[in-house]
Write a structure and sequence with these properties.
Elements: E1 9-11, E2 14-17, E3 20-21, E4 24-27, E5 30-33, E6 37-44, E7 47-50, E8 54-61, E9 64-67, E10 71-78, E11 81-84, E12 88-95, E13 98-101, E14 105-118, E15 122-149, E16 152-167, H1 171-175, H2 181-187, E17 190-203, E18 206-218, E19 223-235, E20 240-246
Parallel strand pairs: 1-4, 2-5, 3-6, 4-6, 5-7, 6-8, 7-9, 8-10, 9-11, 10-12, 11-13, 12-14, 13-14, 14-15, 15-16, 16-17, 17-18, 18-19, 19-20
Length: 249
């Protein structure tokens, strides 16, 4: 990326741009790009619409951004609202706002918080979620998966090496200065999925049709139709497992 030949652009108030190649992009007001944007850095503290693709090295969204095409970035931090109509490729995604991706997402590391919705598949090496609402309508595939449940969570299918799903602690609400127990109780939820497959699996407050793994631990609050395991299977007395089978490889 030859940054010396690129200019910075800052949109303040209501304004439009043709899009194109930029160095730094800043949107403070209501900015509309009429075609794709390729930049080194983008920051949106206002409302931004890109009628095309967004390709950037890094980005920060404190306002809102709507991308009508695809999104590609090395690192992308979200504290506001992001909607992507196409596919997304981000090496490191950190969200504390509302993210909706209507296509697939591929990443090396995803740290999802608040509201996180993926209409397609989600592929990442490391996936961590502390989301109040998480909805993944496709396959979640990652080497290391940690999901802390605070509200309504749905994932169509989950696959990985190490999978841990447990109810989140009240400490996150203390950090957000929401320390009343009634708030924590209201956000207690569970996760619903069709299939979970992995090597090391630990589950709490999970409803699933089938769980398959090498070592499977079903903690409290689960409702599982079928567990298939290779080496070890443990079940909390508070959970329901309708059928368990030891697989012979």
């Amino acid at each position: 990326m030859d940054l010396e030949k690129r200019q910075n652009i800052k949109i303040v108030g209501d304004n439009t741009s043709a899009g194109g190649l930029f160095n730094n992009v800043s949107v403070v007001g209501n900015g509309i790009f009429n075609s794709s944007v390729d930049c080194a850095y983008i920051k949106a503290t206002g409302d931004c619409t890109i009628n095309g693709d967004l390709k950037t090295v890094s980005g920060v969204v404190a306002g809102s951004i709507a991308i009508k095409g695809s999104l590609s970035a090395d690192i992308f931090k979200v504290a506001g609202n992001v909607t992507v109509d196409g596919d997304t490729s981000i090496k490191n995604l950190i969200t504390h706002g509302n993210v909706t991706i209507k296509g697939n997402i591929s990443s090396e590391k995803i740290d999802a918080n608040s509201h996180f919705t993926i209409e397609g598949n989600c592929n990442s090496e490391i996936f961590t979620s502390n989301s109040i609402v998480m909805k993944l309508n496709g396959l979640l595939n990652a080497d290391d998966i940690e999901i802390y449940i605070y509200g309504s969570n749905f994932v169509k299918e989950i696959g990985g090496e190490k999978i841990m799903i447990r109810r989140g602690s009240e400490s996150i609400f203390k950090r957000l200065k929401l320390i009343k127990s009634m708030i924590y109780d209201a956000c207690k939820g569970d996760l619903t999925t069709d299939v979970i497959e992995g090597d090391e699996i630990y589950l709490e407050y999970t409803t699933a049709k089938a769980v398959r793994g090498k070592n499977v631990t079903i903690g409290q609050g689960c409702n599982i139709e079928l567990v298939e395991y290779v080496d070890n299977f443990n079940q909390h007395s508070d959970s329901v497992v309708r059928e368990s089978k030891k697989m012979i490889l």
